[in-house]
Here is the input.
Amino acid sequence: MLMLIITRKPGRSYGKMRTMPRKKKQKRFRAVEAVKEMARERIGTPKPGRVVPDKRTEKVEKHKPSIEKLLSED
Here is the structure.
């Protein structure tokens, strides 16, 4: 049976166990975000946008149906 022994070298650690986590970085002040935040408080949130259908997927008839096609359908 093979047995592995893990030894610790002096002066080395298994990671940053003793350090404290850094403070969260403050966000920069942006006038646009401040104005939008005030507008949401006063007016309310804007309505969600509508989905615009893709014009390339819609098939639109390019020509009027001929008289022969109209008569043959009946």
Summary: The helical segments are 31-42, 67-73. The chain has two helices and no strands. The mean pLDDT is 79.
